[in-house]
Amino acid sequence: MTTGPRVAIIGGGYTGCAAAIHLRRTSPVPLDISIVEPAPELGRGVAYGTPDPDHRINGPTTAHFIYPDDLEHFDRWHRNSGALAADPESVDGLGRVFPRRADMGRYVGGELQAHQIKNPSGSSIRHVNTRAETVIDRDGVFAVTLDGRDELTVDQLIITTSNAPPAVLPALRNVAESHSAFYPDPWDIERLGTIGKDAKILIVGTGLTMADAAVMLLRDRPGATVTAISRRGLLPTIQRTVPPEETLPEAMAREVPEFVRRHGTPKRARDILRALRRDADDMMAEGGEWQVAFDWIRDAAYQLWPALSADEQSRFVRHLWPWYETHRFRFPPQIETKIQIAIEGGRLSVDAAALLNAEPRGDKIEVTFRRRGNVAVQAETFHAVINCTGPERKPRQTGDPFLQNLVSGGYLVNHPLGLGLVVDDLCRAQNSKGDYDGRIRVVGPLTRGQFGEINGIPHTAFHTLRIMPNILAEMETVDAEGA
Ligand SMILES: Cc1cc2nc3c(=O)[nH]c(=O)nc-3n(C[C@H](O)[C@H](O)[C@H](O)COP(=O)(O)OP(=O)(O)OC[C@H]3O[C@@H](n4cnc5c(N)ncnc54)[C@H](O)[C@@H]3O)c2cc1C
User: Fold this and answer.
1) 225: containing domain
2) Which of 56, 137, 166, 180 is 20 to 30 A from 309 via CA?
3) pTM for this model (two decimals)
4) Which residues, at least 6 apart from 172, have a Cβ–Cβ distance to it below 8 Å?
């Protein structure tokens, strides 16, 4: 039985499991690790919990890793486990592999299990199969309340609850509470499965979550049609066709990222945009791909973003973020093809429109909106309205009491721009007194306010590994004091 420092990881998706694996791999002392996760299986989370065969990872296997020193690990697993044989469509025309997200979840869960069994450092990892509700600091030790009954006593907290269902836009409030045709959670596949075969469907949002929902619904419902709307009506873009010269971890580990080498660290959002445009133009003039310029920003974001003032960050969020995201996040090629076929076949339309209101009309919903460039307001009735506006990052709006309890208890602080929680460069959470508490770390997408770019696995893996020595150093102190 482990008697070392006790760690609770709240959230057992990719980030929670990667944190446990790296703690286990790098700790010089045995740790007692509990992963609190309500789902029956670890490793899937929201991102990789979907069972749908058309829900794929949005980059190739080699960009999806747990071990930055072995980028081929997932690719080998995919080939050797039979996942590739069961899913030949995962290989695109250029030979790159874009597996099903369900396979990614299976891989992460399997790796965690292997670390649970094989345990040279003497650490233990157990799955506490429930939700965390709140945390109380009792004389330097945390009591984590679980589902209103049990309690877990730990020295260190790592919060990886990441992706909450999207917030409901004000225009949809009249139907949000209980209308049977409103689908607030785009990842509730079981509920989406109840949509009728010939349904006329509205999807609010035009990003990757929309693509997941549209491809799945149109595949299983030959009589259905989908209208997807967002303010700008921008779809995600296509993948690069020429593989990058250096791997993502190599690019991110550079002391001076390529963008910084070319442009320094601009202090204004506008100057970043100018530099980005220039790079994209240069790339295309040389016969290259504009996506490279966005990848340079992506790889330098953790240096560029903190260098902007709060006002400039706010400017970026208000004016550039949606545009940046649609260029930065790219369709898996298989999904891009299906979306194009649906558009050309008239079964999917994608529009820029302002959503004005939604009203119940029996078992349907009437939505009023104004298409871009049109003064006229249009009203249309739909059998189903699905909320696909992207994960909610403001703890107070997620509806999950855990983060809200920690904010109201003074342990966490909401990021002023709504980008998760306030942390420092080592992912230490800021408390209401303004101090950074190394005993509470937040890892993954909820740290976006600090790093600017943290959504995908490469960034999460990079930062998880980077902060490990600091977490372990603090925990050794806990161990020494407690001994
Ligand atoms: C639909 C979707 C698809 C994505 N696809 C990709 C992709 O292809 N490639 C990529 O690199 N990135 C992708 N991302 C980005 C994704 O955010 C990162 O990969 C992320 O790191 C995923 O893992 P996670 O564990 O941080 O978050 P999540 O997958 O959101 O997992 C969080 C976990 O926390 C648990 N939890 C929440 N509240 C509590 C609580 N109170 N107590 C206990 N547990 C709790 C949840 O049950 C969940 O299992 C995707 C994101 C989404 C939402």
Assistant:
1) 170-237+331-387
2) 166
3) 0.94
4) 182, 204, 355, 358, 385, 387
